[in-house]
Structure formats: C-alpha cells, structure tokens
Design a protein that fits this description.
single chain, alpha+beta, 2 domains, nine-stranded antiparallel sheet, five-stranded mixed sheet, binds flavin mononucleotide
C-alpha cells in the first residue's frame, strides 16, 4: 500500500470526486478557515484543500477522515458495514516497522536557531474563544523511557512562540504515562510531531493497546506491510517516512504553563489541560508541503474517527462475552466517545448487564451504555429513544454507579474537580417472553406493494 497522504487524496478524487472541494480564494488562517468548514458540515463535510492562505505558502487540507466512507477507503474496505468484523481482525495484527534512509519531509530543514513555526506553518486560530492558534492534526510520537517502544497519538498543540508549543495530554493514555515515567527519572521526553500522515497512521495512532506494545507494529498490521520510518536528526525517535511535516523536540520535565482555552470535541470551550510544554528543536517539511488540520469542536472531522474506534473496540471485546451482538453505535450526539448503543439478539436474561459492564470497562471515557433488542436500528436515535420509552422501567432497568468511584474524561464538563464520572447502563431490551408484539407491516405484503408505491412516489420509498 502506498503510504503517502497525497496518493490517498488522489484516490478519493478518482473514486468520489463529489466529496473533494478546492477552495481557491484567499482566506485567513485566523477564524475564516474554520468558519468555511462549519458551513461545509451542512454539506456532508467534504475533504477540502485551501490553496491560498493569507501570509503563508503552504495549502491547508481538512476533513480527511470526516466520513465513514473515507475511513473505510483508507483501510481498503469497500463497505462501511465491513468495519466491525474486518477492523477487529486487522487491529490484532502486528508488523514491525522498516527503517529507511530518507523521509520525504527532509527537503527543507530549520534547526533550533532558525525554526519559526509562526512564519512557516499556517497554524489555524479556530474560534475567537480559543487561547491562540492550534495544531490539531499533529501525531505526537515518543518512546517509552522504560521499554523503548513507540507510541503516537493526536494531541492539541497551542502555538506559543516560534519554538514553543503548549500540549495537553488530557486523555491520560500512553503519552501521559510515558511522560510521567520520564519525569520520574528527572528527564524530559524526546518527542516528534508528524503533520500530514497517511490516514492509517492517524487511525492506528488512536488505537488502545497494551502499554508495552508498539503502535508502529499495530499500524503495520493495519497497512498489511511495515510502516516505513526514519530516524530523527536530533532525537532518538523514529517517524513515518511519508510525512509532509516533522517537528522534533521534547515535552519538558517539571514545566507546566497555562494552555488553552480550546474549543473541544464536547462542543464546549475548556481550560482543562495537563498544561505541558513542547520545546521545538527542529522543523522539516516536504517541498510544497500540505498542512493538515482537523476541524475542532463537535465536528465530523474530529468525532467520527473516535466513534469508529470505540465501535470496533467494543465489538471485538463483546464478541468474547455476549453471543449475538448485532451492531454497535457510538453516536456523535454523545461526542463520539461518551455514549454507546448496542443491539443484541438476547438469549438469556442478564446478558444486557454483561454487555453494559464489559463496555464501560473498555474506556474510562464511556459513561452511558444502552442495550436494545435486534429489532431496533441503533443508527436511528428515534428508534433508540422509542425502545427506552417503551421497554424501560427506571427502578429495575437502569444501573447507576457512584461518581466518586469512576474515572471520567477530563474534558467532560460534568465531571467533578478530580475528573470523576458516574456511569449509567440502560437495559432497554424486552423480557424474553410475555411482551406485546411490535406493530409492523408483513414483509411479504411490503415487498408486493413496494413497486406500486415506487411507481407513484419515486425510488426513495
Ligand atoms: C482530533 C483528536 C484530537 C485529540 N486531542 C487530544 C489531546 O489534545 N490530548 C489528549 O490527551 N488526547 C487527545 N486525543 C485522543 C488521543 O489522541 C488518543 O487517546 C490517543 O490514543 C492517545 O495516544 P497515546 O496512547 O500515545 O497517549 C485526540 C483525539 C482526536 C481524534
């Protein structure tokens, strides 16, 4: 598979040209790009290339993975429906990276003295409530100070000075832990930022895996071949060779500074942050580099990819505990992370609770799980609410855990000052017997009348 983002964009243009927009007019990186992307959300969030950014040479690309169709395509899947089963298989594969001599980003180089992020990169200021310009599609890469394995993930980066970025590790996963381990040894954590990577690198970077497994091996498994990586010039970190822009530096030891506020995926402005500082040592970029930015706040660009990951993770875990899982939906109404709908063909009473606890254990950010029967389309929230309205009695079908026992998402504004969260599970399934029959048109009759209705009212019936 080609590991170049540009080849992926070409493929989308060939296959789904109606989903790619070129924005030719001059536009400012301050507020205007985000305003355009917000408007385009109403048109299904096409992939947009802004070619003419005021005061900058680099074009900006956004909405790369803002649709399930594009996520499926990047993984080589024709059909979004294949997600759950195939992705669960791919995510278990491990292929070690291949170290190559050169990266495409190596053509232009700025060292510690000459680097100036304020001038070189069109870093976007998204909303007027934000604390400043933010890099939102920076895949931050570092090694575990103990085992040496690589991790990578998306972390928001606030532009502070020509060679300084604020960084928040609020998801409290591996990067947070690796930085903690470095600080325990009295050291900063050497780290690189890759901007403009192949979508599989972005997708793989968001996967959960054991703390001693390399994310590069997992990304290789998703690619079906070794990820090609290059050694950084100034730090002992490997970075994807096919990257548009690489920033080298370190997350400082014992330094905390104000960071934010920022318009987060919850659709609230937040000042919550781990307040870390990234000191820049060098910048490399490809000729005519594409600057990738993910549209922040509650957006298809930010939230779809998180939702997709959780659905696949939960599906593969539930396969081991619940016999007939039909579908999983982590809806955008739950910010693509807090809420999960599960439909099952129930075969024993108690199965829904099994599914609820297994799902809550999957990720500390999940706080509400609703289990419904397989006659409910969980991608239609009206149907989910109907099942809750007609199949649930609050005192026996809802389980609520105490807030002081649960770890929550730091960015959920309803968590307490220690970021703790209560968890809710709703069993909206019918009892196995003795429940009224659902009103439905007989399938044979529907098939017979359908051609007649279509003739009168058109194909959409
Ligand atoms: C668009 C986007 C932005 C994100 N920003 C942050 C962030 O600023 N801080 C953070 O801790 N996690 C953020 N996340 C979640 C992490 O990228 C994710 O938890 C990842 O697995 C962390 O990698 P790690 O295990 O190497 O820490 C973001 C996710 C997405 C999709």
């Amino acid at each position: 598979m080609n590991q170049d983002l540009r080849i992926f964009i070409n493929k989308i243009e060939e296959k789904f040209p109606e989903t790619v927009e070129y924005f030719e007019d001059e536009i400012s990186a301050k507020y205007e790009i985000t305003a355009v992307l917000k408007e385009l959300e109403k048109k299904g969030s096409p992939l947009v290339i802004f070619k003419n950014i005021k005061n900058y040479k680099m074009p900006v690309i956004s909405n790369v993975l803002a649709s399930r169709q594009r996520i499926a395509m990047s993984l080589g899947l024709d059909n979004e429906r294949e997600f759950l089963e195939l992705y669960s298989k791919y995510i278990g594969r491990r292929i070690e990276p291949e170290i190559v001599k050169n990266g495409i980003f190596e053509t232009n180089y700025y060292d510690e003295k000459t680097v100036d992020l304020t001038k070189t990169l069109p870093i976007i200021t998204h909303f007027n409530c934000d604390g400043g310009p933010y890099i939102t599609a920076g895949v931050v890469i570092a090694r575990d100070p103990d085992s040496g394995i690589h991790t990578c993930g998306l972390h928001r980066l606030q532009l502070k000075e020509r060679n300084k970025l604020g960084i928040s590790l609020h998801s409290r996963k591996r990067m947070w832990e690796f930085h903690r381990r470095a600080e325990e040894k009295g050291k900063s954590l050497p780290a690189a930022i890759a901007i403009g990577v192949h979508p599989i690198v972005t997708i793989g970077s968001l996967a959960f895996l054991p703390y001693n497994d390399s994310k590069y091996d997992l990304i290789g498994g998703l690619l079906g071949e070794p990820l090609q990586v290059v050694k950084c010039k100034n730090i002992d970190v490997l970075v994807p060779a096919w990257t548009e822009i690489i920033i080298e530096g370190e997350i400082l030891n014992e330094v905390r500074e104000p960071e934010g506020p920022f318009s987060e995926f919850t659709n609230y402005v937040t000042g919550r942050s781990t307040r870390n500082v990234f000191k820049v040592k060098a910048l490399h970029h490809r000729d005519n580099a594409l600057y990738h930015s993910i549209n922040p706040a509650l957006s298809a660009d930010h939230n779809t990819i998180m939702a997709f990951h959780r659905e696949c993770d939960i599906f593969s875990t539930l396969l081991r505990t619940v016999p007939n899982v039909k579908a999983i939906h982590v809806p955008i109404s739950g910010c693509g992370i807090f809420t999960c709908y599960i439909s099952i063909k129930k075969t024993a009473e108690g199965e829904p609770l099994q599914a609820i606890f297994t799902t809550l254990a999957e990720d500390h950010c999940i706080k509400a799980v609703v289990v419904v029967d397989d006659d409910i389309d969980i991608f239609d929230e009206q149907e989910v609410l109907w099942a809750i309205s007609t199949r649930v009695q609050g005192d026996k079908d809802i389980i609520i855990t105490p807030q002081n026992m649960g770890m929550g998402d730091m960015l959920d504004p309803s968590t307490d000052e220690l970021y703790r969260s209560s968890k809710i599970g709703i069993d909206a399934t019918k009892p196995l017997s003795g429940f009224p029959q659902k009103v439905e048109v007989d399938d044979r009759i529907r098939k017979r009348i359908l051609p007649i209705v279509q003739k009168i009212y058109g194909q959409q019936q």
